[in-house]
Known about the structure:
By secondary structure, this protein is of the alpha+beta class. It has a six-stranded mixed beta barrel with strand order 3-4-9-6-8-7. A six-stranded mixed barrel has the order 14-15-20-17-19-18. A four-stranded antiparallel β-sheet has the order 13-21-12-22.
Amino acid sequence: MPAENHYIPGWALWLVHRLCREELHEEIEGNLIEYKEGLNPSTLQSKWKFFYQVLTYLRPSTIKSISQNSKFYIMFNFNIVQTIRGLWMHRSTTILNISGYALGMLCVFVLFFYIKGELAYDNFHQNKDEIYRVIRLSEMNGEKYKIGVTSGPYAPHLALDFPVDIKSTLRIYSTEALFEYEDKTFKEDKLLFADPNFFEFFSFPLSVGDPATVLDVPNAIVLSKAAAQKYFGNENPLGKTLILDKEEPFVVSGVMDEWPADSHLDFDFMGSMKYIEDFSFMKGWWNNGLFTYVRVESPLIAEGLNEKFPQFMDKYFGKDFERSGKRIDIELESLNDIYFDQVRYDWAKHGNKDAVILLAGVAVAILFIACFNYLNLAIALSFRRAKEIGMRKVLGGNKLRLVLQFLGESTMVCLVAILLAVGMTEVILPTFNRMFDLSVVTSWLDSMVITFFAGLLVVTVLLSGLYPAILLSNLKPLEVFKGQTHLRKNNLWLRKGLVIAQFSISIFMIISTLIIKEQLDYVNSKSLGFDREAIVMVDFDNEEIRDNREAFKTRLLQSSKIKLATSMSGEPGGFHDGTTVDFLGDVEDIRMRTAFVDENYLKVFNIDLAIGRDFSNEYRLNDAHAALVNQKTLQDLGLSLEEAIGTKFRIPMWDTLEHVVVGVTEDYHFNSLRHKMEPLMIVPGHYHRRMGIKLDHSQIFEGLREVEEIYAELAPNYPITYEFMDDSLEQLYAEEKQQSQIFQMFSGVSIFLACLGIFGLVSFVVERRRKEFGIRKALGASVVSLLQIISREFVLMIAVASVISIPLAWYAIQLWLENFAYRIELINSWETFLIGALLSLILALITIFIRSLRSANANPTESLRYE
């Protein structure tokens, strides 16, 4: 090794001295030093340029002559024709190797790009490490949780109180509106309003417009490319006017470019906060509905701010905290954490970090299974190639040359499989996206992707090809020609261990898939305590329908196709705010969820009363202060059903009126089954956001058409927005359903690849015991008995795999089920674990039967004629 030159990396010197002619060393080194001095050493681009420059010196005119008898020549020279011929001679095994490995790599590619996309959220912002969102911290009777929204005054007062620590602030408000341009009218729900510094605070690219001034005017609006195309086609959208909600003109001041990656903010329209900053809801500290962001210099400053925030909250909320007896605090949430953080009352896009980690594990498992298959098949093939290898050695074949030859075959198989997998990925990915409602995109030329897959190829070739290559090259010619080729016992146990590992993974995934499906079936079939069938939820999302909601309800109830209708702040499974309730007397104050409803609420959803009465028009005057609570409230208060009736309470944050409990409902699941039952109060009020309409089961489509017609008469300028309640409830568990479907797909792939591994090992066993089976057959053994002999050890291996995988699956699934407050008991699903193991066993036995049947049926003279 030459003395190290501190201006040139060691790897470059090694290549130059190893490959280039000795008389050129000094000249090449001088040229490289001069070239490197002109580069910026800190950038990745400069390092790649230097790497390319080194390679340019490795050309025929500079390369030293190499003797064909030298080890160096052997290392860099092997016969490609022999490689192809060797693969073609054993084409059935080659096809199995390529197809199995290509299928495994297809799964790895799809999962890699999915995970890459999930981890890339918000990483394109230049100041991403300085951006934090302000979130609120609350608790519900001992259970702490985060709240993603804040109110309008937070940002200016944070900037005012912490001018040194906070560099800048930003507010964003999400809403929806009716957009019009000429004859085009659309209801848009991806509309945000933000402070004018939005495009300087974040790095969303603009193809048209100045980031510093694009939102300076109150009626300015910025569109996405898709929105601009939707309204203006190929026209230049700049300066054109869109009408919002039939009256407000907004002028297009900019158009966004395509985003480099996804963001937790999902929008097509961006308006200026100056348009809404004087609205009344922007002034109140408790009117929470905005995202508030701050920029700070470092995480250390962010931690310091978190320590100062209690004093900030006491300054502006101290009296409210004293009145309610409860407090709410705030903290900073890093931009890098927003996408995967679990936050309530949050309209940002979120992902599941546990699911990403799980799928990464699945990708690694499938990759290992695919490599193990190649390993098993290659070793099984060694007996067929024993004479070929012996002849090569007799004719002077070098051991290193043989290893490289077999590594070359492995590399060629892997390259063909990878290219095939790349093509299949491009073909299958659109279908995969549609099936699972995803937007996974490929980026094959990305430097990180190229580096990852190049490393993956090297690791795979070494993992799956090096051991068989060394094993085959170690065969001794004398033993080969005597027919005494055998492999050491530890090699046999290695391959058995690989099969056990494969089936452990497969059984684990099958069991997980079955249990996830069982839990989702339990969630879907569990009685929620209310009726959800044939109920349509209509939003009060514009002034026309809000002003006419009583007329809307009256008109609906006049129809024979509509049974009942109710207005409410939130339906079961929907939004329920929280507040502190001051119970009078010796009863302790608690925090409760709220629902503001009318007299038909319990009737529409068929919610049962445990005691007391419902709201009624007969008690209209008294019901102004009446309230219903659920049984969980009584449990937390320590009251009996009888004691609850007549109990009085105040809601300090809202009013000073005394409310009286007139009824207690049975506990019904107004939240997702992921959450425990919480105290709930149901009170009459006018904070209604939606209407629930119960249709006649026998006339659902006719009733829905009538709802649309009545709505169109009362709100003619706005399209109706509705959804069926059972559909919205299913969306609560859409993430788990998606995970279940993905698990089903990849568990199927894993068991298929594991069966290929069984195929390889069965091939080895059949080849190794061919003469034994011939003798047994000649002595009268039946086909069934031979199949039993072959399958016996595989049944044992799958039993060992089951013993390993079942406890691991039990532990992992128990952790997953902890996400649900209401879940199945695993002890009652023990048969599911056995089904997973039995299913793997059955599939393995089918594979064994297919591979062994021909050998068991073979004429014994074929294997004994040379004896």
